[in-house]
Input
Amino acid sequence: MSRMIQAILTNPIAVIGAAGQLGGWLRQLLGERARTFDLPELDITDHDAVLRVLLAARPAAIVNCAAYTNVDRAEAEPDVCFAVNATAVAHLAEAAAELDCPLVQVSTDYVFGNTPGDNPPPWRETDVPAPRGVYAESKRAGELAALRAPKHLVVRTCGLYGHTTLVDQARNFVEAILRKAERGESLRVVDDQVCSPSYARDVAEAICWLLDVEITGIIHVTNAGATNWYEFAREILALRGLSVPIEAISTAEYNAPAPRPAYSVLDGARYASLRGAAMPRIHAALRAYLTWRSRALEKRNTSP
Ligand SMILES: NC(=O)c1ccc[n+]([C@@H]2O[C@H](COP(=O)([O-])OP(=O)(O)OC[C@H]3O[C@@H](n4cnc5c(N)ncnc54)[C@H](OP(=O)(O)O)[C@@H]3O)[C@@H](O)[C@H]2O)c1
Output
């Protein structure tokens, strides 16, 4: 048995950002192996607190799912965004080095902000990032901070949806579409951003596996395939049997404060070859989430 697997069996896995979408699923999948941290009890921008709390917890690995994730607000708050997404990752890397344990840093497809022309291949782990916008730049700086930890894994993912709790308060694309459509509102959705929206549960499950097999470096983990947000929204409506007017618009028409990549499909070949199986496909994952969501809502509505 390797030292890492032995340590995982006896020491907890520190899940940072455990109240978020991805952290919530990790907490659920790791069960008793998880030692969870989030605001307000641990603010990862506080260097001394990070060192004190993590050195006391003695985790076998640190998985950082915490982030400043409001892409548009980041344009007006670059300092806060960089403090959480970049400087705080250096604190975690320092703690991981002290503990001689791996740091798993979750990152984003947004590090690929340039437009690659017609029919581009998906981005590989070896491609050179070109982030555009405060959030993307801060996440790339966070990657670089994590890569300085002696044992590190940077997991890039995309378009996360699916929260373990508080289904109707969750902030993600699937819930935003469902909320509007269930109120009978018409939708305007961009059709010129191609990516791979991913079910947080699938990504969390992949991270658990990656932890167990001690993979290092950078790895792309998204649901397999590619779509655009307009097509994905149509799929959500169809699967839920909702019928509201939906219009395809351009990113320019949407006019968000932060830039968005036109093409940020991540190549999952490294993950698939290591694991011997690709990630679940986008549409299967969406169906799985909507089924889970219906059951979770039913359970909540029938519990006393
Ligand atoms: N969401 C996406 O579409 C997407 C796409 C690609 C990659 N990612 C990356 O995937 C990871 C997980 O994303 P997610 O959607 O699960 O995020 P999320 O739901 O927004 O969760 C992030 C968690 O981190 C916490 N947090 C924020 N600042 C913190 C701080 N200073 N100290 C400690 N905790 C802090 C948040 O607390 P509060 O809620 O109280 O702020 C929240 O509980 C992030 O690294 C993100 O950049 C996300």
